[in-house]
Queue: 2 jobs
Job 1
Amino acid sequence: MQNVIEKLERAQLKRRPRFSPGDRVRVHFEVVEGNRRRVQVFEGIVIRRQGSGARETFTVRKQSFGVGVERTFPLHSPKIQKIEVAARGRVRRAKLYYLRERVGRAARVRERRAGEATAEQLRTDELGTGADDAASADVDEGSAPERAEAAAAVADEGSAAEEQPAGS
C-alpha cells in the first residue's frame, strides 16, 4: 500500500530548481483576490526547507519597510508559477532562524562563489539525474536541442584545431 501512495505522490511532483537555505529566491505565485487572479512575486532568503516528497515546504524571509516578513510555501503547489534562484548563499546551518533577530547588514548571508562546489553538487554530478533527482533538477540548464547544438559547436572547434599544423 505504501508503494502505491509513493507512486501517486511522485507523479504529482513538479520540476523545481535546486536551492537550499541561505539562497535568495524569487517565488512567483498565484493570488486570488475576489474573482481576479494575479501573479505576485515574493523575494527573500530561504531560511528553512522541511519535509519531503509532495509535502515538502520552504520558508522565505524578507524585510519589507523595516518589518521582517516570512512566508511558507509548499514546494510542489500548483499555485507556484515559478521559482528563480537569484543568488546562492553560503551558510553552515540547515535552519537560519538566527536571522530573525538580526537587522540590516547583520542579516546578510555570504554569497557562494561560482567556483565553490558543494559535496551535494559533486555527488549529483557523479550520479547523474535519476528518477528522484528529476523533480529537483535545475530548470535553468536549457533545452535538449540547445545543449546538443553547444556540444556540436565544441566538437567542431576541437576537430578544426586538430586539422591545423602545429607550426602555424
Job 2
Amino acid sequence: MRNVANKQKLFAERRGCCYNSCIHDVANIVAPIIATMAFFNSAVGSLQTIVIALGAGLGIWGVINLLEGYGNDNPGAKSQGMKQLMAGGGVALIGTTLVPLLAGLF
C-alpha cells in the first residue's frame, strides 16, 4: 500500500505538480458533485412528501365518497369511493417504498 502511494506521488511530481495540489484539484472537482447529490437527496425527500400527501388526499376523498354512497344507498358512489380509497392507499405506499429508492439511483 505504501509503495502505491509512493508511485502516485512520484507520478504527480513527474507531471510537474506536487502531490498535495493534485489531491486538492480532485477535491475541487468532487465537491460540486457532492453538493449536487445533496440537492438530489433533498428533492427526493420533497417528492416523497408530495406523493404521500397526494395519496392521503385521494384516500380521504374516497372515504367521503364511500360514506356518501352508504348514506344515500348509492352503489355507484360506494364503488367509486372504494376504488379511490384503495388507489390512495396504493399511491401512499408507493411514496413510502419506491420513491426513497430514487436516492440510490445515481
